[in-house]
Amino acid sequence: MMSQTEREQIDDLPPSAKLVFKVLEYKGSLTQKQIVDESMLSARTVRYALERLEDIGVVDEDIYFADARQNLYEIDVPTEVEPDQCADAQCAE
């Protein structure tokens, strides 16, 4: 689960960065071009949003092995747990 501090940092971001975060949350790991296509934001806006998300440590950048010229972005913090993923006693609450 995301900490209160991380949640507050995300709340302080511009709307474009929040949208990019949500796209990554729902779609999983994506390249910058895929984020542009999914979010319908400009490439420049997505680049800025990803920089902001990386600055606060909630998005991680990795190599995209299918095309090494691109990077793969993914959420670096645990988000909401789906009900069908709860197998531990801590999810029984």
UniProtKB/TrEMBL annotation:
Pfam families: HTH_24 (PF13412)
Gene3D superfamilies: Winged helix-like DNA-binding domain superfamily/Winged helix DNA-binding domain
InterPro entries from the UniProt entry: WH-like_DNA-bd_sf (IPR036388), WH_DNA-bd_sf (IPR036390)
Protein's name in the database: Transcriptional regulator, ArsR family
Organism: Haladaptatus paucihalophilus DX253
